[in-house]
């Protein structure tokens, strides 16, 4: 498991960047680089569950470990989803269960620095290194839109 970090400066207040990340329609846009039909199901409560899904009901389920709007959102990934159902842990998921995905927003002089720290298995490092900057560019475009 490796921890990757991605950072971008966005010419918008934290609240606008937060909304670009987590409002449903915005989330669907920036995560489309990972899967074209990405969406989530959650109640947005700290300690609660969140399901990250694609249109066919595959994806993963996680917990919202810590959340303080508009400063940070930390997810702990647990297991896989298939056909919209949480799957029991298997050998594959045991290799990444407990991994973290953390979003931190810091604002200074009307510029928000968005940092994402994500734990990935060795076989996904190259993929995430290529795709995550594209996703953050979309977040930047959404937040900076007038």
Report on the structure:
The protein has 146 residues and is of the alpha+beta class. It has one domain: START domain (Alpha-D-Glucose-1,6-Bisphosphate, Chain A, domain 4, 2-Layer Sandwich), CATH 3.30.530.20. The protein contains four helices and eight strands; from the N terminus they run E-H-H-E-E-E-E-E-H-E-E-H. Strands 1, 2, 3, 4, 5, 6, 7 and 8 form an eight-stranded antiparallel beta sheet that branches.
Give the second-level CATH assignment, the architecture: 2-Layer Sandwich
Mean residue pLDDT: 96
The rounded Rg comes to 15 Å
Derived structural class: alpha+beta
Number of strands: 8
CATH top level is Alpha Beta
Order of helices and strands: EHHEEEEEHEEH
Q: What name does CATH use for the topology?
A: Alpha-D-Glucose-1,6-Bisphosphate, Chain A, domain 4
The residue fraction in helices comes out at 25-40%
What is the overall number of helices? 4
| Poorly predicted sequence stretches spanning 5 or more consecutive residues | none
Largest sheet, strands/sense/barrel: 8 strands, antiparallel
Number of domains: 1
Strand content: 35-45%
Q: What is the CATH superfamily label? A: START domain
How far the N terminus sits from the C terminus, by CA atoms, comes to: 39 Å
């Amino acid at each position: 498991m490796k921890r990757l970090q991605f950072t971008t400066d966005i010419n918008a207040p934290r609240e606008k960047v937060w909304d670009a990340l987590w409002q449903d329609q915005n989330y669907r846009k920036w995560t489309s680089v990972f899967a074209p039909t990405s969406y989530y199901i959650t109640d947005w409560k700290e300690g609660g569950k969140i399901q990250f899904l694609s249109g066919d009901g595959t994806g993963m389920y996680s917990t919202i470990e810590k959340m303080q709007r508009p400063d940070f959102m930390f997810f702990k990934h647990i297991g896989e989803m298939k056909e919209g159902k949480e799957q029991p842990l298997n050998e594959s998921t045991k290799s990444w269960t407990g991994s973290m995905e953390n979003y931190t927003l810091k604002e200074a002089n009307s510029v928000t620095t968005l940092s994402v720290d994500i734990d990935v298995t060795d076989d996904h490092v190259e993929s995430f290194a290529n795709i995550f900057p594209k996703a953050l560019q979309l977040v930047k475009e959404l937040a900076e839109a007038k």
